[in-house]
Amino acid sequence: MKTTTQVTGAILTAMLLAAGCGGGEEAASPDKEAAQQEQKKEDINAITIRPEMEPRITIGKPAMVALADKMQVPSQVEVDEDRLVRIGSYVTGRIIDLYVMLGQSVNAGDSLARISSPELTEAQLAYLRAFSRTALTQKAAERAHLLLAADVIAIAEVERRESELEVARAELGAATDRLRLLGVDNGALKELAREGSILPSVTIDTPKSGIVIARNVITGQVVQPADLLFAVADLSSVWVVGDVPEQIARNVQVGQHVEIKVPALGDVSFDGLIIFVADTVNPMTRTVMVRTIVENPRRRLKPDMLASMHIVDNPHESLVVPETAVVREANKDYVFLAKGDNRFLRIPVELGPGVADMRPVLSGLTAEQNIVVDGAFHLDNERKLAELE
Length: 389
Prior knowledge:
Blueprint: H1 2-45, E1 46-48, E2 58-60, E3 63-67, E4 70-79, E5 84-88, E6 93-98, E7 105-106, E8 111-116, H2 118-149, H3 155-181, H4 186-195, E9 202-205, E10 210-215, E11 222-223, E12 228-233, E13 237-245, E14 257-261, E15 269-277, E16 287-295, E17 306-312, E18 316-322, E19 327-329, E20 332-340, E21 343-351, E22 358-363, E23 371-374, H5 376-388
Antiparallel strand pairs: 1-21, 2-23, 3-18, 4-13, 4-17, 5-12, 6-8, 6-11, 7-10, 8-9, 10-12, 13-16, 14-15, 14-17, 15-16, 18-22, 19-20, 20-21, 21-22
Helix pairs in contact: 2-3
């Protein structure tokens, strides 16, 4: 019995030892599998190129540069109000002639329309009465001075006639000013005083040169001084107005140059100068209105065109890689590290939006590492072909 017990104990000991050895292997297997997966992953991202491919690859380091982001602001082209004139009628009357069409170029002093008005007729009659009375009282005053010299009349009579002359001159001045306000120029006034004939109508003229951008009247229409009849604008320069989010409005200043792009004109940009930044925030959109002035000698920019205002932010130092160093796969960015002896390893990196053909490095890369700065696309194609083989 003793012998049997010893044999059984030996068997149990052997079984326990065997079980212990097996457990050790099972405990070590996850680490081994992780190492194998890591090795496999590195093998997938590694590539050794042929010598003939070397001229197509450029190796360098990431660079520290001063980048300035561009803020894109939706905008709209507007008329430069400093070069805009709105023209109405001086009197209530009827339009009897129109001389311009919408979009026509006009020069300062050109006639836009002709208007007849009873109010104009009454004003001319008042002017003629004042002119005649002034002439009569002036002659009476001159005769009074002659009679006074001959000791025929008293000094009081002379003073009375001079007082009447002053009143007549004041009335003539008021009548003259009224006619000028009604659009009668100096030449017409002189002719009215000389000939004494009533002008049946007057013209509505433009005080500035430009393009007729509005014509809100037709022949035969009765108009009043409050009506806007014409708008004439000089479009050799225009405004581009945009709304900047309040979070970045602090970076916008008067005198700053911005880039203006208009989708309707294709890949063309214009230089704009910020001339106004609003002091208030729009409570509905949380934006600040910014106005720029843009030279428009060829009149390619037209009012109400949609535009995009690109405002350059303050520059800041950033580690960057060129766009030619980046390959993208499954919505991730990668660059190739140079390992020497024509060996390269693709690694994931986190990059910011492109600025001037550069991508800011957010993480995954340092300034000391050697990378492929040009030719990464060809290198990635070779890696994919090697993976298929």
